[in-house]
């Protein structure tokens, strides 16, 4: 490729910018005529990109919208724009390139160079792999690991476009559940009639006016609200600061003092990880034994109290669940347990529980135990009280406008119903066709032969990395990764398709997770880096090969889709005006400031029952009992996990893997801001000072953390605000294995187990993890995770005809075009953007009624549209 003088100057300018760092420009700065400010938006916040001569030179925050922009926005987006970790061209792993139809040596994934190819070759190879897989094994052998929608904040997310393409050619096997809240999203509809973990919380103003105590349980909103599924605006901070000024007391149950605890001056109760069920069980016992529980509330709003009381009293096991019993499990004194239970009873208390609690073996039990305690205390549904499970997510407490936001293209119905819980991907690969249970259903794993991964870092997400790599190499014929970055999922792929970042194309997004009060233009800022294509172009090209391009594009351009999406929203401003300004605002009704979670149920449980079998809070659930699961009882019980401090060896500690401060999972790991997360270029491990001293480890030392599943190297960061016996390694570091198989970068999933929480949800148990650690004296090199692999050029042009693509395509049966009811169209269009489209049979109709009460306002559906969706779900829900 020949560079013009102008291209050379721009390239040199970009290299200089990357080396010296980009510039943060203050809001309101006026620029010279040769400099543009272009509106854009991200998970980290909205901003104006500052561009000169076609090169991004800085960002300008929108302080009128986002009063507290983070460094992820101000510096992270800038530093990764011209990173060496960009995949600039289509790439094929060397052995795959040399023998795409034969033995392409999968055991060399992650170990050998890539060959740069042109787009025609890449699309032909991808199409051939898809066609051959379908022809030999059927569509169920195409497995999508692109379940998550976190790749960027826009409408045209890759997992949605991927689902749309594959569903037009006969479907693909897909994921079910998620890593975020896998246990609770299944158990809580049985208990309280909604997922809860993805539901709006009581409005901020109600908390400020009524709440006396906020009990944080594994909950750190100051950290986790730094990003949002759509566009963060960090609106929660002023309200939480207002809570503190008002005199609301904060108590935090956590092995670590968090950023929220520091800001709110929380009273700390350090607890052993994975033992919160025992704590809340003992608190329930104490308020019963002390006659402090609300008998009238129990009678009116709950079922199953007798069975739960028998468990508390130890009727069957002869173990009363006293505070003394819990002390030996939790490490929290019996005196402190009694004091806490009584304080919650006496004060108007809002319990704020994080999702991290349920990412554990038997994770279904903890949020249920909190609900049982809150119900016995008579709290749920009252102003400023109750139990909430998404205060730390999406500006929990934000008044909800109820307005309709723009929605991207529909995935449509997937003709393939086979699916796999995200945590069980390795098990699926190792045991294709075997049985598993989820939410009371007996299901079978698909037999996956091709994995398509778009905008999702499977090699970072999945627990037990060594097990996953082995399962991929032993069972999967082709791995295709579509991504802008040389993350681990690219490095371990066979074919890598370079997708653009949102800075290199147009899109639209909207405000917050719950608020629905703004729509943002994500205008193209730069030309695509290298030969990157946007996700829509990639799947359109594949759709053309498979003769479904007309159905995929509907004969419209990309911008026409964006304009249609905007026109279908509740925005009143013209598209042209909105596009020029970059943002339009939608009003929120004043009544939203007074909204209380479960208030209707509290005021009239007959007229507004919960969508549980009884219509009430199920302290004991007969439906769960009917599933007869050995690892998920019909009420919240303390069940010792396989790995916890109660059975740890003397040299072991409990390893927790919370969200990072300066990343969104593995996003931003290749940015300068990741230095906050690092010690000498590796992910840090936060260690109690006494644990470090016992092992002769000082701050900044390199350590090796290991168990039977794997090992990693990390930098020691010594602290006195974490309890002894517990270390913290933030999830999301990129993967790089040394010759001994240790991750040289500190990727936590080298240690975590892929053991599911239980046979009910099959959720992750990542936080149930023991390991030992020691000072590392034998590192082989600096961390190389953020260096691209070796790239080779074609020695001779690839012969596309040798793939036999035309014959492969002819062997595939044509797919009958879907006919969908109005409700089905709305469901797959408006209600399934976050993850892979859910199967209606994942939940009963009763449960869908509860779940959609939270989903419909976020989707902005009017009453007629809601009725159509419910009609569709009633026909296709789990029976």
UniProtKB/TrEMBL annotation:
One of the Pfam families matching this protein, by short name: Molybdopterin
Domain named Molybdopterin oxidoreductase: residues: 86-544
Top-rank taxon, per record: Bacteria
Gene3D superfamilies according to UniProt: 2.40.40.20, 3.40.50.740, Dimethylsulfoxide Reductase, domain 2, Dimethylsulfoxide Reductase, domain 3
InterPro entries cross-referenced by the UniProt entry: Asp_de-COase-like_dom_sf, Cyt_c-like_dom_sf, Molybdopterin_N, MoPterin_dinucl-bd_dom, Mopterin_OxRdtase, Prok_Mopterin_Oxidored, TAT_signal
Cofactor(s) it depends on: Mo-bis(molybdopterin guanine dinucleotide)
Family the entry assigns: Belongs to the prokaryotic molybdopterin-containing oxidoreductase family.
Domain Molybdopterin dinucleotide-binding residues, every copy: 655-769
UniProt source species: Shewanella schlegeliana
SUPFAM superfamilies: ADC-like, Cytochrome c, Formate dehydrogenase/DMSO reductase, domains 1-3
Protein name: Molybdopterin-dependent oxidoreductase
Keyword S-adenosyl-L-methionine set for record: no
Keywords, alphabetical: Metal-binding, Molybdenum, Oxidoreductase, Signal
All residue ranges annotated as the Molybdopterin oxidoreductase N-terminal domain in the record: 40-82
